[in-house]
Design a protein that fits this description.
Blueprint: E1 13-19, E2 28-34, H1 52-65, E3 68-74, H2 76-82, H3 84-97, E4 105-109, E5 121-124, H4 132-155, H5 161-164, H6 170-179
Parallel strand pairs: 1-4, 4-5
Antiparallel strand pairs: 1-2, 2-3
Helix pairs in contact: 1-4, 2-3
Length: 200
């Protein structure tokens, strides 16, 4: 399905998305992207539907063609302090604030959003599969975060972050069981099941 270029014509819209909400470690990362109204690239889609090579190739394309783009984070400490949902909103707000061209309207991936930004917005469920700007934001955020987790993996081997990006895979849980938690782990998350029934 071809993604829509905008929700409303003649309006500067920024698509916003985040990645890493379901991870056990690392920051939550968000991106905001304003695309030209006539921009079209059939390869741009929800980042989860693209392979790693496609995503990485599209990053340069998005960054060079966008009117403005920005990537921002909310840290592990912030996640533990204000919870993952509020940290996701915070990361998205930071990305919007970092845009060099201020948008007139936000397209937010998901079903809710809270922010101190004084900007109108629409929440769009599965928006990364409907609007090109949200899909572009999801690609930028995912590639940025995956690279960050691969770098963390060199510092803390044994958790498989270069493969699982911090998501709760069997390999990651096994690493927590064997080596304990790292400064990158979210202490407010349930890092291991009560009954550790993993088939190692």
């Amino acid at each position: 399905m071809k993604l829509l270029p905008y929700l409303e014509t003649n309006r500067l819209e920024a698509g916003c998305d985040e990645v890493g909400r379901g991870c056990l470690c690392g920051p939550v990362v968000a991106a905001a992207v304003i695309l030209p109204p006539d921009y079209a690239n059939e390869l741009i889609n929800d980042s989860k539907k693209l392979n790693k090579k496609n995503r990485e190739e599209l990053v340069q394309e998005i960054q060079s063609r966008a009117i403005a783009w920005a990537i921002a984070e909310a840290s592990v400490l912030e996640i533990d302090e204000i919870n993952i949902l509020n940290a996701s909103f915070l990361a998205m707000s930071r990305a919007v604030e970092a845009l060099t061209t201020p948008p007139e309207h936000l397209l937010i991936d998901g079903n809710r959003f809270r922010s101190t930004l004084e900007l109108p917005y629409d929440c769009i469920i599965k928006g990364d599969g409907k609007f090109a700007s949200i899909a572009a934001a999801s690609i930028l955020a995912k590639v940025y975060r995956d690279k960050m987790m691969a770098e963390y993996a060199m510092e803390y081997p044994g958790y498989g972050w270069e493969r699982n990006a911090g998501y709760p895979t069997k390999e990651h849980r096994k690493g927590i069981h064997q080596f304990g938690i790292t400064p990158h782990h979210r202490r407010s998350f349930k890092l291991l099941p009560d009954q550790l029934e993993l088939e190692f």
